[in-house]
Amino acid sequence: MDSEQFRAAAHQMVDYVIDYLDNIRNRRVLPTVEPGYLRKLIPEEAPEQGETWQSIFQDIERVIMPGVTHWHSPNFHAYYPTGNSWPAMLADILSDAIGCVGFSWIASPACTELEVVMMDWLGKLIGLPPVFLASTGGKGGGVIQGTASEAMLVGLLAARSKTLKRLKAEHPEKDEKILASRLIAYSSDQSHSAAERAGLLAGVHVRVLPTDDQLHLRADALQSAIKEDTANGKIPFFVVATLGTTPACSFDDIDELGPVCNDHLLWLHVDAAYAGSAFVCEEYHHYMKGVERADSFNFNPHKWLLVNFDCSAMWFKDADDIVSAFNVDPIFLKHDHQNSAPDFRHWQIPLGRRFRSLKLWFVMRSYGAQGLRDYIRKQIHLAEQFHQMLAADDRFEFPVPPSMGLVCFRLKGENSLSERLLKRINEAGQVYMIPAKLHETYIIRFAVCSRYTELSDVQASCEEIRRHANDIVSA
Amino acid sequence: MDSEQFRAAAHQMVDYVIDYLDNIRNRRVLPTVEPGYLRKLIPEEAPEQGETWQSIFQDIERVIMPGVTHWHSPNFHAYYPTGNSWPAMLADILSDAIGCVGFSWIASPACTELEVVMMDWLGKLIGLPPVFLASTGGKGGGVIQGTASEAMLVGLLAARSKTLKRLKAEHPEKDEKILASRLIAYSSDQSHSAAERAGLLAGVHVRVLPTDDQLHLRADALQSAIKEDTANGKIPFFVVATLGTTPACSFDDIDELGPVCNDHLLWLHVDAAYAGSAFVCEEYHHYMKGVERADSFNFNPHKWLLVNFDCSAMWFKDADDIVSAFNVDPIFLKHDHQNSAPDFRHWQIPLGRRFRSLKLWFVMRSYGAQGLRDYIRKQIHLAEQFHQMLAADDRFEFPVPPSMGLVCFRLKGENSLSERLLKRINEAGQVYMIPAKLHETYIIRFAVCSRYTELSDVQASCEEIRRHANDIVSA
Fold it and tell me: ipTM > 0.85?
């Protein structure tokens, strides 16, 4: 394919994706394929000779689309949103063409520098305290990670390194590996499973603490765990607090947890993967109260802020904590400007990295702060409207109030009723939702996800839910 | 931005990136900016109101391009290549539009299934033994990771988990964390620094073994390390062997190392990040002799196989090793098809993942096996031609023979002469190369990287190098 063939093919692809997204409402949100469907549709090996673009292009509808779960369908209400917008897609085309690998400043200065400044823009936009920003000239700063799960692991590993350094300084006679074996971290029963997984990956025990009846991790639960574990010879060192949990979008009170962490020298990582985007709106800043006590803060613009995956924003209060943790500096990566600009390879798990800040730049400029606020408020309002509609049917109950763009509901009665309801709805494939458990209560999650979702879609989803409920509980 | 505005903007962007790449030869490969250049060029915060596309678009040349290191310039000879091709860029546009997050089969079946089959295509294309392929119906299979450094970490963590399970079964009375503190892994002084870093991240000691005078890690060096460490109470469990090292593209003899690893129950991870792409050509298959003894194998199509970053191909001989290592399965990720198709979230560090197999599909089909072989052979030939040209100037010497697309050279005499030469060349910014150390010998690496590099570019680079050498050593 030469550049003129690419020009024609790219224009065709652009037209195709516009058509796909603008008409996504017409596609069944969940596919009907069975596992193994795709292998039967294509050859067993790569072709010996190159194929024409048209033969590749026509296979998108034949091979790919039958097996796509349409995350941007207005009827997709599962998990949480994944971002998607025209300006972000434009930025990715540019990022692909520049195709630099920004592991150090010299490997592409623009890639590093735009990221530093965009993380400041974004931090200011969500009202993050200046101590986290690079522009204040302190030790704070932000970096784009791939996912919130990586950010959690990076936070945990930085905390482990920092804690072991302190312990080694206090007890030079002790074996570092033995000290490491005594470390213990905390998450809650509402935290994302990525917290436990980070512990498995790092070889550190992550203790899951119970939340209160409002699904919040409380200071007294944390304090008593610290006390108990310390008495048993453990060394508490890391806490994940969540602003907007996956099951019910509940919020831990970091203003209450922060002082406990600071007093006991525990690293506080704030995971606001989903809800962090809503902090572009001032009316939600109260959830961040006390965030200045955190050591690291993370949210995913690629979830709810119209930036295509992957773009997970993470800030450190003291970037030295991470840079000094895993810095291996071979000669082939050394350069003359190492002390005057960050080499982001030290801030993350992988070595290589794409030019992802272009997406943030294009999206923030194209929408403007006001446009992003309007977007968030509209989606939250849609969730509230859905809640009102479904609440009018008294077969349903809502164990927790709607939170952000998420409504958790269930049929009154046994868990099994709601389980059967969800199974029916997803099998019909017109609306896609997933379940969660709030302590022992099974709920169905309705998350407003797509930027194409309008009131009429939410009304139709509500009708679909009620129709299937008729087969289980009489109206 | 609505879809019609996007159509116009995307067509403009497509035309821009074609112009950028087709004329990249005219840009200085290294930028002249100083650290901090970018912050001065843009506002301190995001705009309140959205901006027009044209105001964003015109800032690409004003703000970004002055700070770009042009990895696809024909004069870029640093590090190793990073892939870039028209078909891969088309696939990324589609991937962005579908915008699914493929952490489980149900989250988008096509995303998982195309990846399974493409990893089979790719494995067959490079001559990987069937035991690594999913299509053989055994326990093998491939997955796309982000980077070779992540693949190395994943391999190490899977090995740690597998080893600890075995040790716990053998010694149920022993504390797992104490056992873990005795683990030791091996890499060589020519392995990528990512191996040591994986050890830092995992909290495991990675011992760097010396290579022989041909820069190969030898079985006797490995055996004596195992013997010594075992005698000291350590538990050897993991070895990184490299096919195509970063400093000099040297090849460890895995046919010799494999039996040692198998005999001592050490996990063998083969890192072929760069050179693995060359295995599309049968004449290089001898480097893989004995690979069936490895537990995991990795190479980066995003380096040398014309696939845009990120796309790091990794195969396991027994995928259960990784799936069982870090499987945390909360209710919101469970689905009905968990046993009939892989949930790739268990195979990697992050939870989320993009639809990256589209790039492999488009590239393999568009070039065909023959086109990919032609591409690799052409680049290797260019390196050979460069070597011949520079060898005609007897001020230069070549401590190791050219290998694949890499030529390592130096000025005869003290290291400092070559250090000064490289500094001058990179300051002039017409050609970009980086150094390495082969044991104590400083060398300059000339890697053929860009798909735009032609013989005339290589000739011009050679002249540029010789011209700067004139200022250091008389001709």
Answer: yes
